[in-house]
């Protein structure tokens, strides 16, 4: 176990939630020699969902933690980002990722299955001595003690409590002192995983799987994203379309026929992919609003990850921001060896992280409009810019916008944290 701080100078940190963000914080804080306990409501440690994109701003953190080899062993690196028109799949804009990401930002762009990502973080947290307590569903926070409160077990005391309990955060509601349900975005996602073996049998799909890329199709009110996963054995497809779920249900088994109908006028290759779908689910997409603060006035509690900045997945940056949060919190707590110093570290954490994550939430929401333009003047202007103009600041392919790309990918959470005054 890495231990930079003398045991008597370490603090006790309780993290609520063992998602990607909570685990990242656990690793980063434990690396600094503090004692970390993660309290997770689930009875087993597993991540649901499908693929996840890991951009250079998070892969450079994984590299710093010595985890990149393990991640790369089960990930896929896309060559290019390709934005396409929905009807015929014609290419509107391409942004190179190999060699661009490594050459310019010193870290790769990766695609990984969430379960693999989560398992690697869990293993590393345990290796570093982090305790993970399951079946621990927080019902609130006692901010002054501070302690995590449960209905069915004794409250858990620590010197610092980190609320990393995701979009539907009890910790956030406890801090606000009121209910604060996630906000509707008007969209839902179908999440699909195909077998590459099945795709190989369909000639129309060969050029999509010839080598790893990431493909986006943009169309009226909807978009689709696809990329390879699991060393090229699987293929991840996400379809975004208007939210038609009943008010009280956020995830529902979906009828593949209903899904195919929604995309019946789209690129024949996309339709050929959807023909392979046997079962799928639809997930309501929700996000959050900017909070006045992430830190409780006691100076002993802070929120992070989706609990305070849940975002639409359109920029593929939600988990990356949670990983950045974890890294930044760890780096700042690495300078703490007395409990009275915690509140200052939290103030610095919030000052450095809040503006960035809020911008990512806003930019992700703005992509909803860019991707989903109906056929017509604005769509033609978007496509003209994409096909005829060199990328400029504000370019509709946000990953190719030279200024925004640098803002996203060049960020180093450790450097930022250590240089924050
Ligand atoms: C369709 C889709 C695609 C996405 N694609 C990408 C992508 O490509 N790249 C990317 O960077 N991001 C992506 N995201 C976003 C990303 O999934 C989230 O931003 C990220 O998982 C947030 O991590 P978190 O740890 O903050 O929250 P979560 O992952 O939600 O984890 C919260 C944890 O807290 C636990 N918990 C909740 N309540 C309690 C409680 N009361 N007590 C104890 N434990 C509790 C939960 O069980 C869970 O384990 C995508 C999201 C969606 C919906």
From TrEMBL:
Domain FAD-binding, chain residue ranges per copy: 12-364
The reply on keyword Flavoprotein is: yes
Alphabetically ordered keywords of this record = FAD, Flavoprotein, Monooxygenase, Oxidoreductase
Q: Which InterPro entries match?
A: FAD-bd (IPR002938), FAD-dep_Monooxygenase_BioMet (IPR050493), FAD/NAD-bd_sf (IPR036188)
Q: Does the keyword Glycoprotein apply?
A: no
What Pfam families does the record tag this protein with? FAD_binding_3 (PF01494)
Homology family: Belongs to the paxM FAD-dependent monooxygenase family.
- Name-wise, this protein is FAD-binding domain-containing protein
